[in-house]
Amino acid sequence: TSGTFGEEDQIPMVNVVEVQRMTLIKSLLLGSAAGIVAVATAQAADLPTRKGPVAAEYVRVCSITVAGAPVVGFVLPGSDTCLKISGYVTGQMEGGNVSNSNAVVYGPAANVRNAAGNVIGQRSTQGIGSSFGRDSFGWTTRYNLTFDAVSNTAYGPLVAHAELQFNHGEGFDNTGRAGSDGGLNRAYVTWAGLTAGKANSFFSFTGGGLGWANFFSPDRKGYDQPDLLAYTASFGGGFSATLSAESSAHLEDQTGGSSFLGSANWGGMRFPDIVGSLDVSQAWGSAHLAGVAHNVRAISLMDNSTLDKWGWGVNAGVLFNIPNVAGAQIGVTGSWSKNAIVASGLPGGMWGEQGCVNGNGQCMALGDAFSNGNGTWANPEAWTVTGWAQFTVNPQVTLGVEGSYGEVRWTNTPAI
Fold this sequence. Notes:
There is one protein chain. By secondary structure, the chain is mainly β. Helices cover 9% and strands 48% of the residues. The chain contains two helices and 22 strands. The protein has helices spanning 13-46, 251-255, and strands at 61-66, 69-75, 82-95, 104-106, 112-113, 119-121, 124-126, 137-153, 156-171, 179-191, 194-198, 227-236, 239-246, 260-261, 264-266, 273-282, 285-300, 306-321, 329-338, 369-371, 377-394, 397-411. The strands form three sheets. The protein has an 18-stranded mixed sheet that branches. A two-stranded antiparallel ribbon has the order 4-7. The N and C termini lie far apart (155 Å). 27% of the residues are buried.
């Protein structure tokens, strides 16, 4: 329409728009205020309060793979080290009937004398005692406590392993030797292929055997572990090679006897045992080939003659996993040594009884050398072969059978 309006007829349009705008702004301000309050409330809930307790640092579970197997433990607070604590307690009872007792006889067939009638080669005898006084029952208790600390590094896991083991035995066929023994069983560090400390000898394959009593296999793996420094190179596919310098193995370490027979005494260690080994471990099982060079030093108290030579030993074995039978294995191992009697496995048989089980039977004449008393020395060559099988019935029951055979022959003994 056209025309003009008077003052009384004009509608205040601007005022209407301003009212609407103010209402919208007020709504926005109220909404923003509500949003700020909501955010401020949420943030305040996350802020620590002065009156509340300090947040606890809970133990974290960790798992680090070492040599293909996980080490599961807990993280030490304030570090990235994974600590695992384990161990076991076992008890055993044994019985047996020892029917006879023999003496240990070693050296020449009779005393060897010179022209003046003086004894220069001595036939030695050691009585075992009457079998009537021997126990027919025995007990053994063992306690083992193990610690593993593992940290990941740029060159692989750094592992520290420590193991304490204690035995107590009474009566027939016991590991405690009618009393208590034990202490540090193993303690070593491994990193980037290096192994340093008291660890399993790299010469050994199966160690002492499946049961408590050892069979004729070079041990120093389940007992009398050496101090060593070794490097292992892994080639993939389960193949590896190791070079190891190990504390020298002597008969007295395993049996309490002497490494030298006749009138000889140990002349002191000048070199460690040098061990080299080749190993393969795959799904079918494992195989092992190792050699050891053993320095032999002795002095004869009869003629003051000395011996300084190298002995040798070889150990080989293979272990098969039986297909489709979990935990079932069958294996065989053999060893040969000259002037390195511990490497043969003979001294470690049973409880280190040198072939005369609990005094029942003829003990073997074992040692690294024998002084003939005339400036010459007799040398031992020894060999053993062992077979075993193991079947796991369930996690609590395992059945095993094992057997060994061994011989020792002495050369350069005096003629009678």
